[in-house]
Amino acid sequence: MKTTPGTRYTRIALPLATAALLTLSACGSGSEESGEAADSAIDPADFSINLDDCTDPAAVTEEITDTFTIGYSAPLSGPVAGAVELATAGYDARIAAENEAGGIDGVMIEVIYKDDAFAPDKAKANGTEFIDSIGVDALATFGTGPLSAMVDDQNAACVPMLYPSSSTKDYVDIEEFPWTTTILPLAENEAKFLVDLIQDRYDEDVKVGIAENETASGSVQSEAFQAAAEDAGLEITAIVSDADPVAAATELLSQDVEVVYHGGVTGTCAAFDIASGRVGYEPDLVLKPSNCVNAVEYISAGDAADGIELGAFGKDPNAPENADDEGVALYREQMEAAGVPEDVIGNAVAVSGWTQADLVINTLKQAAASDDGLTRLSVMAAARDQDYASPMLINGIQWYSTPELLTGIDGFRPITWNAAEQRFEPAGEVISIRPE
């Protein structure tokens, strides 16, 4: 159940009516023992924050013993609502499974959704209501624009922002934004991975172009790619907007661009490929950011999308190589128990939403194992102390953070779209981006 325009908010806190669900509780430090919290959970005292700066310092250290409430500002309407519906299907299924298994040492997780239509001003208003009127324990959102609108108020109130869908580096500074941590790979890390891929395959005189999405998220991706290219000495021939994808493809074609980085945003990623097919533009390689992994978009593009590549971090539930994967089996069990249809279960965006919730749950379990129990402070401390192989991350990739540095997704595996098979296929081995 989701909110609709005009609905104040929707509460999601329903346990699944199913028996003996497998549950995740591998917590921190890479633990994979089901049903147990990590015995190395960080002590909140080791996480240095001046609580005097908080709007309500006492609330930050008060133990949460009944319900842990997450306020989620999401574009339930507007241009990316379809993608969000997929993501929240996975998110809700993972939360419901944990509640059915008893929650976080008996503490149930409740998610309250409010629609922001992908508009920053609405997201800011939602954040204010979540913090001041509803009194949530944590926040989440979707997209860099909404996150940017919420982040100052959220940090002033010392309410954890747990794994919102954004790749910006603007809020990585732990001293300035101690209460914010994001889920998507940092755009600068992903861009370096893609630039390295180009330089491994092409001569230095290859013509590279960028098709940039005109949203905050698209700008972050484009700017990161430009910076990575400059650092590597890779010349960019042309930068165009994808607002008119036909015009973008035509311009890049006129400049003989051989390799295109399309900094798309989930829900709009295939429009450029469709336009390229219409104008007869066939670049040698098209690269996308990892959020552009929704197979439904590329199926609609047909042969025009064949061969596009991106760096993946999530497992494909339908891939033959994952048929016997334990993480995929767990994911499928929880999604099916929640009544999610098969076409959604197999979608990469749904996988991402499930993984987002799994990271939240892992963090809460680790916080609950601390000396102070489950508090806002212990939750944020746990979010800064992760080395966790979430079951739907590709084997060899983990979620990594320390009190000093947020890396997040610590690796990628290149994948390529096979139009004939209508699925992504592995195009190489996992490449680590974890700092040494």
TrEMBL record:
Keyword Transcription applies: no
Keyword annotations: Signal
InterPro entries, alphabetized: Leu-bd, Peripla_BP_I
Secretion signal, residue range per the UniProt entry: 1-28
Gene3D superfamilies the record matches: 3.40.50.2300
Domain of life: Bacteria
Domain Leucine-binding protein: 68-393
Coiled coil stretches, renumbered: none
Similarity-based family: Belongs to the leucine-binding protein family.
PANTHER family, per database record: BLR6548 PROTEIN
Protein name in UniProt: Leucine-binding protein domain-containing protein
Organism whose genome encodes this protein: Aeromicrobium marinum DSM 15272
High-level lineage: Bacteria, Bacillati, Actinomycetota, Actinomycetes, Propionibacteriales
